[in-house]
Specification:
88 residues; mainly alpha; 4 helices; binds zinc ion
Length: 88
């Protein structure tokens, strides 16, 4: 049986990479029994989903900033540049 400290380490590292099956089972069993680690796990999940939400919002912001007309302007600029290279 692992200690709470070990479990919380495993839970933290599970955010970066998937845990081996055995560790996942141990963490799961521990979380079922231990209220403290359960609360820690829920906090981490909340944190993770809020980080994910912020990243998604940021991506959407950027796609809004690059509206179709500026894409056309950029494409035109690139085309003009390329034509200029071909002429010289
Ligand atoms: Zn615990």
């Amino acid at each position: 049986m692992r200690s709470c400290k070990e479990i919380s380490k495993l839970v933290s590292s599970s955010l970066e990479r998937p845990l081996p099956f055995r560790d996942r089972v141990e963490v799961w069993m521990h979380l079922k029994m231990c209220r403290l680690c359960g609360a820690f796990w829920r906090d981490l999940q909340r944190l993770r989903s809020s980080v994910r939400r912020q990243v998604t919002e940021k991506e959407q912001d950027e796609s809004i900033r690059l509206d179709p007309s500026s894409k056309v302007r950029m494409q035109t600029a690139v085309d003009t540049q390329n034509r200029g290279d071909a002429d010289s």
